Amino acid sequence: xLSLQEISDRLEIQDLFARYTYAIDERNWDALDDVFxxxxxxxxxxxxxxxxxxxxxKRWLPVAMERFPRYQHMVATTKLELSGDEANSRTILFxxxxxxxxxxxxxxxxxxxxxxxxxxxxxKGWRIAERYEEMGYAHNAPEMPPVPGLADLSA
Length: 155
Description:
Layout (H helix, E strand, L loop, with lengths): L3 H22 L10 E8 L7 E3 H12 L4 E2 L2 E10 L2 E15 L5 E17 L2 E15 L10 H5 L1
Parallel strand pairs: 1-7
Antiparallel strand pairs: 1-2, 3-5, 4-5, 5-6, 6-7
């Protein structure tokens, strides 16, 4: 039987993942400060993105996501291993996206992946300390030019 603490932890972590998806889908990059620890490492490289700190990723995301006028991030089916004030998880993400081509036409495609996270309990609640985006599949993905990298944004 789950303890009240484990039930609470699981619900808080589920809420944390929902806050992440809403921050991304609403393009509220500053809301990511309430999702990640200040020293968190985020690695989107396997899916064509960047790796960096929360501040670096917050600077990169508006540029990377500009080509997508609409998208939704749906997280589900989390495998969670709790150990006191730390946890590891692997969570499914289903991500339909709309890509706007240079000629203005739009193409809908789907991505399925997993978030592999290391989580920590902080004085502000559970936060993601490390996130790795593991590619699963893509369906109907359009040809797209590479996303500018962090180094390109510094120039």
